[in-house]
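Example complex used in Figure S2.
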Amino acid sequence: MRKKGFFTSLYEQRWAFLFIAPVVLLFLIFVVGPLIASFYWSFTEYNGIHAPKWVGVENYKNIFFHDARFWKSIRNTIFYTLVIPPGVALSLLLAIAVDQRIRFKNFFRMIYFIPSVTSVIALSVIWKWLFAGEKYGLINYFLILIGLKPVDWLMSPFWTLPAIMIMSIWAGIGYNMLLFLAGLQTIPTTVYEAAEIDGANIWDKFRYITLPLLKPTMVFVVIMGFILSFQVFERIYIMTESEFGIGGVLDCALTVVAYLYDMGFRKFQMGYASALGYVVFAVVFIITIINIKFLKTKVEY
Amino acid sequence: MEILKSKRFQNVSIKSVIYAFLFLGAVSVAVPYVWMFVTSIKPIAEIQSYPPSFVVKDPTLLSYKDLFRLIPMWRYMWNSIFVAGTVTLGNLFFCSLAGYAFAKHRFWGRDKIFFVLLGSLMIPWQVNLISGFILMIKLGWLNSYNALIVPQLAGVFGVFLCRQFIMSIPDDLVDAAKIDGCSEFTIYRLVILPLIKPVIATLAIFTFLQQWNSFIWPLIVINSSKMRTLPLALSVLNGQFGTRFAMVMAGAVVATTPMLIVFLAFQRYFMEGIAMTGLKEYGKL
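Predicted assembly (586 residues):
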């Protein structure tokens, strides 16, 4: 009896199933399937052509205990997260400035946002030219103008990653500014007026009103910054690709995903690269969980 | 923080500091773009002249001519438009359809299925890079539009966006249409679709932008020169003609300008849409 009822109701729900079918099918084929496959391959030795050979946890063991390039890429990625503080500070300042009663508000907002609609490839190509080694590079010319020594940015093991980070800060400001602006606009003017009556100055208002009330946005921007830093790839690829591979001189700008790409698609160690993929997955997953925890506890005003 | 909205701080000096700051910011955003354009119209002799100059004495379109002569730029532009356009249309249709079902239908396993879909947003795409590539090999889709389009046709995020929006539509509207004898698909087409135009616009912008700028997936599934999209073409240009800066910059101008024009024309929708979809970055990796 119950079974029949169940199938009858399934039949009555056929439209709903039809409507979600394309999404669910594509999801199963292109997300779930590959997810399972790469989990299996992460325990194998696999070059994409011959059948995968089971090696147990060997790949993971090698990644964590015998792979200097992996740790180098982790160090570089962690160093790369240093873009977050200046990026957040600058975009917050810009958001506050744009939020004032000023003219050309929309014009400024629009200008700052332009890098966010440009492909990272185009941005990287442009900045590669700005960073060009000799004195005809615009940035080096500027350094000479203010009395500093020109730097061979993308050829120097020391400066490659900082150069890419400078571009990243520049490219990300407009987007974060927009998020902060949305946050700022939820703070009522009356709060500031009340504080002024109590004799608060600009700094007090920033410190005791703006910052605490912006905390949810702040947490979101920072956590997103971490997640995106762990996935950074395209700018590294464009700025450092050479006949020797990607990652720059002495792997100075090799990030985790760049390393994954190198292992998978240049050295064809697909099993090892799959394991690296799961390591990235784990890291991003942990950051996301922290994110959700933070956002949940952050509803108290 | 409204420093200036009260009279006490309505003084000129703070205001001019703010303008100076905003102006400086605007200039530093603009300079790389201006430099890209200026470089692209410089003759070879001027490119490496010292000091570098924003003034072009002898502007030329030579780099653009070479660009279109040496590589099939029109073809790449068409590839980009075709792929981004098809993926966008697919997402608009499939996501709104599924969003409607998740929002207004009761069916077996609805919440569980939705929860699983939503959870997948936490998965970083890198984990499927290798297996996605192998899948394309097995399907025989390498170097085809299929590889660029089909896996992207129905993003989970779009379903989520549509579902949230459709939930705010009163059930009565749907029920009334049912009583009038409309079929489920007619209800979707005549009742739901007209009401969700704002979210459709947002999703269209979001998807098109993401696809237009997409790089890593085309990088691994395309290696024939005919099938490249613009970002991929630009990266190859950068690799092959890396020393011909003017030509690479001309390529960057060609790849950047269409999106820039669309953005300037619809900037309000862009910025509202992006703020609305703020919880998910869109492929700026």
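Chain B touches chain A through 104 residues (CB under 8 Å). Chain B has two domains: 7-60, 65-276.
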